[in-house]
Design brief:
Largest interface: A-B, 99 and 92 residues
Strand content of chain B: under 5%
Helix content of chain A: over 70%
Number of strands of chain A: 0
Order of helices and strands of chain A: HHHHHHHHHHH
Shape of chain A: globular
Radius of gyration of chain B: 24 Å
Order of helices and strands of chain B: HHEEHHHHHHHHHHHH
Helix content of chain B: over 70%
Shape of chain B: globular
Structural class of chain B: mainly alpha
Strand order of the largest sheet of chain B: 1-2
Strand content of chain A: under 5%
Oligomer: heterodimer
Distance between the termini of chain B: 23 Å
């Protein structure tokens, strides 16, 4: 028995090491003074300084934030009511409609990018930030629906019934009972959708025009032109950013 | 109204049935319309174009043809499909082999430690995929960390060719999708009643047969869910083979991108994406055949 425990524990720890090793390597080497990226030559903030001076990065960060804010807002406006509506349907239609709305979670991202590109080209829409925002809303919508629905299911339906018994109209119940109870899930969904949007590369890659470079697109083109410590520094910042966003989101959802 | 359908409804459903019905409709319409315009119509366009003909300068000529589906079987494309299926299957198997013991280990920890481990597994999953793939480029390339270390230690005398190989792609895929395997496995293992394992042990089953004949059959839905969640994104992967595999290790995702953006053969690109989508949907449908069996099992005492 003891033998098996030790074996399981070592496999578990190996998994953890495997998951964290590359991230830690990035963080450590972002402080490396050497330009030859893989040998340690002393601690330095140099590459972070380079990032601050890089104007193209500022523009890309601005674009990313704009896209994330607008597409998250759109996904919330569409997704929260949809999650509520789904929970009010009968089982069968809930399965069918739910499956349709959650489809972006399973279809290959490349395919989503390609099909959106076709749509925009055929509709004669110029590729740019607008098309990126529309594309991001497509995959942010199911993220919002999943999180809000999970919370709706945990809510006690008696609260709504009690409000109805006291003469509240459906809209009043929605505004004064359901929404306040949903608040943690809504905040969690905002952060999660925001993170997913900030991180997206593939859909953006297909539907972004020349003027609409987001941060991941910029990182990609930097990687394609060669490994440099500057990318390590940028990566480290992006890792910290998404980790903190997700951390806050998880805390909110647990409440 | 029975308990089941009642619990499926949400708050505020007890008012006037007519206005309540209308409200459900209004709640759902915007989201459904959005999905129709930006998801279903585009997918249908891809479907239609896959039967069209390519124009001389890359446009689409609206002339029905099955040419694209015939072209897909060309050696070059069929090989890429084959390689993708092999890589996605290997990724799934490795993730299962690594993920099962991990999930089994986590389930038997105290609730507090279970939460800690689960969050630790989710954090890398939520960090930028591009950045995580880049980390492996940094480690695996010729002047990368691994070669520098091995050369420094005198284990090797010439750097190993690791980056831009199918092995690098495999490492990247396993790395990217391992959490997708662990989480559903954990969810089913958590529901496994330890009494079954104890009963088997009382009946003198050895550890291996307890595992093979009790634990595995009872956690089958989780195993299948985990395998699908790994297999589907691995099969359609784009970034991992693009960055770690180079031009010689293309997968279907890269082929689609190539046909659309480089070769500008939209009809062929569409046919390839449609075949990919059909494989993915077949996998999901297969999963839903297993799902009802599980819910039936749960209802049994």
């Amino acid at each position: 028995m003891k033998h098996r425990e030790a074996w399981l524990r070592s496999v578990a720890l190996f998994n953890l090491a495997f998951l964290y090793f590359p991230i830690l390597v990035l963080l450590v080497f972002s402080f490396n003074a050497s330009r030859l990226a893989a040998t340690w030559q002393g601690f330095s903030w140099h590459w972070y300084g380079q990032l601050i001076e890089n104007g193209a990065l500022h523009a890309a960060t601005g674009n990313s934030l704009l896209v994330a804010v607008v597409s998250t807002a759109l996904a919330m406006v569409l997704g929260i009511p949809a999650a509520m509506g789904l929970e009010r349907l009968a089982r069968r239609s809930q399965h069918i409609l739910g499956g349709m709305l959650l489809l972006p979670l399973v279809i290959p991202e490349v395919m989503m990018g390609v099909s959106l590109l076709l749509l925009f080209v055929m509709a004669g829409m110029p590729l740019g930030l607008t098309t990126v925002i529309l594309g991001h809303t497509v995959f942010n919508l199911p993220v919002v629906i999943v999180i809000v629905r999970a919370r709706l299911r945990k809510l006690d339906s008696c609260l709504g019934e009690a409000a109805a018994d006291l003469g509240a109209s459906p809209w009043q119940i929605l505004r004064q009972v359901t929404f306040p109870l949903l608040r943690p899930a809504i905040l969690g969904a905002v952060l999660m959708a925001f993170t997913v949007s900030l991180d997206d590369f593939i859909v953006t890659f297909f539907v972004a025009g020349p003027g609409a470079t987001t941060l991941p697109l910029k990182v990609y083109s930097m990687i394609k032109s060669g490994v440099s410590p500057e990318i390590n520094a940028l990566s480290a910042l992006m890792v910290l950013l998404s980790m903190s966003l997700v951390g806050v989101s998880l805390l909110l959802q647990r409440r | 109204m029975n308990q089941l359908s009642r619990s499926a409804e949400s708050l505020g459903d007890m008012g006037n049935p007519v206005s309540s019905h209308r409200m459900t409709y209004w709640l759902l319409t915007p989201g459904v319309l959005w999905s129709a315009v930006f998801l279903f119509i585009p997918l249908m366009v891809v479907g239609v174009i896959s039967f069209a003909t390519r124009g001389t300068y890359g446009g689409v000529i609206w002339q029905f043809s099955l040419e694209n589906y015939r072209d897909v079987w060309h050696v070059v494309y069929a090989r890429i499909f084959g390689q993708s299926l092999v890589l996605a299957s290997l990724t799934t198997i490795i993730c299962l082999v690594l993920g099962f013991p991990l999930a089994y280990y986590i389930v038997r920890l105290s609730p507090r430690w279970q939460a800690v481990w689960l969050i630790l597994i989710m954090i890398p999953f939520w960090t930028n995929f591009l950045v995580r793939t880049y980390a492996w480029m940094f480690i695996l390339r010729t002047e990368g960390l691994l070669n520098t270390l091995l050369l420094g230690l005198g284990v090797i005398t010439t750097p190993l060719d690791l980056l831009y190989t199918d092995k690098a792609v495999l490492i990247g895929l396993v790395y990217g999708y391992l959490p997708f395997m662990v989480l559903p496995l954990y969810a089913t293992l958590e529901r496994l009643d330890p009494a079954f394992v104890e009963a088997a042990q009382d009946l003198y089953a050895n550890q291996w047969s307890v595992f093979r004949r009790v634990v595995v059959p009872l956690t089958k839905p989780g195993i299948i869910a985990g395998c699908l969640l790994v297999f589907i994104p691995s099969l359609g992967a784009f970034l991992t083979p693009d960055l770690l595999g180079g031009a010689r290790n293309m997968m279907v995702g890269n082929l689609i991108q190539h046909e659309y953006l480089v070769a500008r053969d939209w009809p062929l690109g569409s046919a390839i994406s449609l075949i990919l989508l059909i494989i993915v949907i077949a996998a999901v449908v297969a999963y839903f055949f297993v799902e009802p069996i599980r819910s039936r099992q749960e209802l049994e005492p």
